[in-house]
Amino acid sequence: MLLATISWLILNILLLLSGIEPIYATPPDVSLTKSTCHDACGTIPVRFPFGTGFGCGHPDFGRTIKCSSSGALQFSTSTGVYTISSIDYSANILILQDPFMSTCASMQNSGSFHLDSMTPFKYVEEDTFVLLGCSTTSPLFDANEDLCDTGSGLHICRGLYSCKGVTGIGLEPNAPISTCCVYDPPFAVGTSAVSNGLDLPKLQCSSYASIFGFGGDEGNPMKWQYGISLQYNDSYYSDETCKNCVTSGGTCGFSAIDQSFACICRNGINTTSNCFGRAELTEMMEGEGGGMKAAIGVRAMESLGLGFDLASDFRLKFAKKCPDSADGRLVVLDDSSRRDVVLPGGGGGVIRNVPDSIRCDKGDRIRFKSDVLTFNQMSELLNQKSSVQGKVPSGYFNAMFDLSGSWLNDAAEADHLAFDGYFISLYYLHLIASPLVLHDKVKKSVPSHWNPASLSRFIRTYGTHIIVGLAVGGQDIICIKQRPSSVIPPADLRGYLEDLGDHFFSDGRSPLLERKTRDGKQKVPEVFNRMLQQHTMQFTSITETSSKDGLTIISSKRGGDVFSQSHSNWLQTVASHPEAISFKLVPITSLLSGVPGSGYLSHAINLYLRYKPALEDLHCFLEFQVPRQWAPLFCELPLRHQRKKSSCPSLQFAFFGPKISVSSTQVGSGKKPVVGLRLFLEGKKCNQLAIHVQHLSSLPNMMELASVNSSVACQWRGSDDYESNEQFLEPVRWKKFSNVCSSVVRHDPNWLQGQESGGAFVVTGAQLVSKGQWPKTILHLRLLFTYLPNCTIRKTEWAAAQQSSRKSGFLTNISTTFSFTQRAVTDAPKQLPAALNSGVYPEGPPVPLRSKKLLRYVDVNEVVRGPHDTPGHWLVTAAKLVSDGGKIGMHVKFALLDYTPA
C-alpha cells in the first residue's frame, strides 16, 4: 500500500510539472482502479456500455447486466435472471437463454418474461415468438386483432408439436396445432398482454419458445436456434470517446459522483477523455484524502440555485442550468465576497471561492422509521422533507418505492407504504440569500398566454423548482409496498419492518424476531426471510415480492459502495464516496409574482407533475389539456314522455328476455377528435341502447394546422358494409336471437388512393344500427372517420372497459334476477379504481332503480383515455362491438400520433 501511494504521488508530481491536470486524484485504496474492471466474463467479451464491476461500463446497463461469481454473464429483470449466451457488438444484439423456455429437445411449463420499464433494451423484430399449449379461450385467438400468424407460422407450430418434448406440457406428439400461436414480439400483442413482455397466465398458455434463427433448415426444429434476442442502444456516449479511452490503455466507466463518463486509468487517475495527457479539470480538490469529498462538495455547491424537475429522481445530474447565466444559476447571487469552506467531518476537504450567500453546516446521522402510511400520506411526508407542499408524487418518491410514475395506477396498486433507513449527512449546503430573485432571462422565457410549445420548452429548460439546499452523504433504506389484496394489519407490518431493519443495520447481530400466532404457527411472512438470504450477484437494490402476502420489499443504498451487502462496511465508504441524498426545493412559480403569464406556467407545471408525461411528449400533452365533453350532452337526451312513439329497431337476447330498442342517431363531434366511447341506456325507462362519444372541446393548435387544408372528405364506415364472410357474429345469450357483429370497424385504405402519404384517419363520430328480422337481429357499429394530414401513427393499443369482476352463467343470472335487496358482503372489500373526476355525477346522472335490470345485457362503462394514460394524447382510430359474459360491450383502438409541420 505504501509503494502504491508513493507511485501515485510521483505520478501526480510529474503530471503537474508537465502541465497536465488530472480530473481527480486519490490514492488507489480509495479510488476505482482498473483491477475491478475486466474485458471478459467467462468466455464472453465485455465491452462498453457493459461492465463487470462498480463504475465499469454505463450505469444504465449496470443495473441489468452483471458478471456472477461463477463467471456467467447474466441479465436480470423483474421476472428472473437469465444467462447471456452471446453478444454481437457490431449489431448491438445479445442473446438470452431462459432455462424454462421450451425447445424441441425439452418442453416444460414456462414462466412469464418481462423487460423492465425504462430499460435500454428492446425486442428484435425478426424474432419468432411461439406460445404453446394455449387455452381455446385465450385472448390471442381473436380473429379481429390478428395476433396469431395463421399463414407462414403454421409450419413452426407443426414443427414444434412434432417434437417428442411436447409431452412435457401435457400434449401428444403431432397434436392438433389449434393451441399454438405464432406472433410478432410481445410489444405487438396489444391489450392481451403486457406491452413489454409475456404474461402467460393472462394469455392462458402453458409455455413459450423464442426462435432467432432456423439454422438453415426450417423443416427440422432440432436445428433451430432458441433464445431471446434483445437490441440495445449504445448512443449514450460517442464511439470516439470510449475508443480514445481504450486506445490510451484505460477502461470506459462512469464517475461515482454524478454517473458521467469517466476513463479509468492506471494508478487511480481518472479523466473525462483519455489517459494520454491533459484532461479537462472538472473537479476541485485540496488536501490529501479529501479529493472525492471536495469534488462532490464542489458539484453540490455549484448546483445550488440551479433548476430542477420534481418528476426526476433527486440526483445532481438532473439539475438544469440557465443557458445565458455565467454560473448556470436561475437566481441572482452576490458573488462579490467569497471564502474557502472546510468541509465538516474530517478528511481535509476544502472548497475554494465559495460565495458568502452559500452556507455549509455540519450534518447528522439518523435512523428514521416511518409509520405505515397510505400512498398519498407517504408522498406528502417525503415532499415535506424537501420543503415541497402537496401530495403529488416526486421522482425521488417513485424511485424509492420502485413505482411507475403514474399516480393513478400506483395509488391503486400500493395500498400502504413504509420505510426504515439510515440517513448519513456529512454536511448540508444551502442558500441564505433572501429574497431569491430570478434572472431576467428566466422571467422573459415565461409565455404571456397559453402556448403549449413555449410552456413545454420552459419546463424542459429550467425545470419546475430551484435547488436551495442539499445534504451530502449516503442513505441505506428498506421500503415496503403493500397491495390492496394483503390482509396484514398495518401495526403488524410495521413490527416486521422494524425487526428486519434491526437485523439489517446490525449486520445480523440483532436476531430477526420470530413472531408467532397463538397456535404456534409462523406469523412472519416468508418474503421477510428471503430478504435475509445472501445474494451472490451485485445489485444497487434488492427486491423481493410475495404475491401470497401482497408485499414487496426493496433494499437500496445511495452514496458509498452501493454494492456492499453489509451495512457496517457500507458506512465506512460513505465518507470517501458521498452523494447528494436530500434536496430542498422552491417552486419557480413562487418567484414569478407579477410576471405576465405566470398563471399559465403554474397550471402547466401542475399538469406535468400530476400526470408526468415524458418531456418529449410534453408539448402534445399540453395541447390536449382542453375540456372534454360527451356527445350528446345529458341535457339533450329525451327523458320526457313522447307523444308519438317512433318505431325503433329492437334487440332481444332470449325467449323470455326483455326487448331493448336501438337508437340509430348519428352522434358527431364537429370534426373534433374522439378520445372515448361508451354504450348508454337512454329514455325515461332507460331501455334504448345508444352510443356516446367523448371528444375534445376544441382542436389542438398542431392538429388545427394539419386539418385546415385536408382534401379528404369525412366518411362513414360500419361493420354492415363488410362482405358477409368478413362479418363475425357473436350471440349475446341465445344464438337464435339477437347477435352483435364483432368485426373491427376501421378506415378503408382505398380512401387514400391518389393522396400523398403522411396522414392518419381518426374517429369523429359513431352510430349504432340494427339489421335483420326478428328474432335474429344483428347490431352493427358505424364510425365517422376524418383524415389528418402531416402526421404519422407512432403506436396503437386496444383497450376495454375497466371492470372489477365479470359474472356470467345461469346461476348468476338467477341470483341477479331475484335479488331485489342488497345482499350482505361476505368477501373482502374489492379495490375500487381510483377516479380523477370532480363532477357531481362522475358516472352520469341518476337513473331509476328498476331500469338497472337491463345492465345485465349492456356494459355501459366508458372506454376512454385521458391525461392519466401516459403520455396523455391518445385518439380513437377504430373500435368494435363484443359479446362478453352475456353483455354487449366495446373494444376501442387508441393511437398516438406524431405531428409534423405542413
UniProtKB/TrEMBL annotation:
What GO molecular function annotations does the UniProt record carry, in alphabetical order?
polysaccharide binding; protein serine/threonine kinase activity
Give any single GO term for biological process. regulation of salicylic acid mediated signaling pathway
Q: What is the lineage of its organism?
A: Eukaryota, Viridiplantae, Streptophyta, Embryophyta, Tracheophyta
Which residue range or ranges hold the MACPF domain?
287-622
Q: Which reaction does it catalyse?
A: L-seryl-[protein] + ATP = O-phospho-L-seryl-[protein] + ADP + H(+); L-threonyl-[protein] + ATP = O-phospho-L-threonyl-[protein] + ADP + H(+)
Q: What is this protein called?
A: non-specific serine/threonine protein kinase
**Where is it predominantly found?**
membrane
Query: Top EC class per UniProt?
Result: transferase
- Signal in keyword set: yes
Q: Which InterPro entries match?
A: CAD1/NSL1-like, MACPF, WAK_assoc_C, WAK_GUB
Q: Name one Pfam family in it.
A: WAK_assoc
Keyword Magnesium attached:
no
Where does the chain cross the membrane? none
| E.C. designation(s) | 2.7.11.1
Q: For this UniProt record, give its keywords in alphabetical order, as a comma-separated list.
A: Glycoprotein, Signal
Entry GO CC: plasma membrane
Note the PANTHER family from the entry: MACPF DOMAIN-CONTAINING PROTEIN CAD1, OS02G0475300 PROTEIN
Hey, what's the signal peptide range on this chain?
A: 1-25
Membrane-topology annotation of the record: Single-pass membrane protein
Instruction: Give its localization.
Output: Membrane
